[in-house]
């Protein structure tokens, strides 16, 4: 057996594989520390550095659910390096993460521009990032939804749905239905929202890597519909379920959402705890660092928190 040390690039590739393993195990904090150290050593080549920056951006926005300017900077560096290397697939993958990071820090114009650029590239070469075109239209729909253009949001969701032709797109289809239901709720159509959500087979994603995220987001969407329909008991039960799942997921925006739902149920039922629960919802929203979440929670609780 040779006692020669591994070449820096080989060593870097092995460390990158370890990082991927940590993400699979949901050990995001450890992955964050190790990835930063890997970049600080400066031993890896530009391709591995680009992949590591992209991994860090994803780790912030999806793994740790942390709104952070650092996520944006890692995303921008990943895009820059991949572009310089001519690694178009990696560049577009990194752009998908970067667009989400822009959205989370409230840089909506930059997020929209990035998603639009992704659409242009992937319309010409969709195989570069499988599902990437769906993600881009979904991201544009979310921006439209946040900025109050429900018709535009529905348009992008329909475009995304039209791209879901394969069996592997089942999860996308289910989440697109869920997002459509939220837009319809915002338009004041709870019955239609319930019908759209009813198209989803709830047990289809009861297991797998995305199951906890799915259960959490489906739960709060159902809770919103029940609340809009005036079904206080069902809304409360779903709100409590959402809160428990969000705590396990560590998702601060959804913890704000769950407390908002429960505050609205308390208020509808004339309970004294409504104000206290509403303040808790605002605290989680602010803690999330998401301007869009704060604005949404504040707007929905305006009657419970008058003057705020």
Descriptive report:
It is a single chain. With 308 residues, this protein is mainly alpha-helical. The chain is 75% helix and 0% strand. The chain has 15 helices and no strands. It has helices at 8-24, 28-41, 46-63, 69-85, 88-104, 108-124, 132-146, 150-162, 170-186, 190-197, 211-228, 232-249, 252-268, 274-288, 291-300. It starts with 7 loop residues before the first helix and ends in an 8-residue tail after the last helix.
Number of strands: 0
Reported for the largest beta sheet, the result is:
none
Q: Helix coverage percent of residues?
A: over 70%
Instruction: Give me the strand/helix succession.
Output: HHHHHHHHHHHHHHH
Count of discrete alpha- or pi-helical segments spanning 4 or more residues:
15
Mean pLDDT: 91
Could you provide a short overview of the structure?
With 308 residues, the protein is mostly helical. The protein has helices at residues 8-24, 28-41, 46-63, 69-85, 88-104, 108-124, 132-146, 150-162, 170-186, 190-197, 211-228, 232-249, 252-268, 274-288, 291-300.
Task: Give me the secondary-structure topology.
Blueprint: H1 8-24, H2 28-41, H3 46-63, H4 69-85, H5 88-104, H6 108-124, H7 132-146, H8 150-162, H9 170-186, H10 190-197, H11 211-228, H12 232-249, H13 252-268, H14 274-288, H15 291-300
Helix pairs in contact: 1-2, 1-3, 2-3, 3-4, 3-5, 4-5, 5-6, 5-7, 6-7, 7-8, 7-9, 8-9, 9-10, 9-11, 10-11, 11-12, 11-13, 12-13, 13-14, 14-15
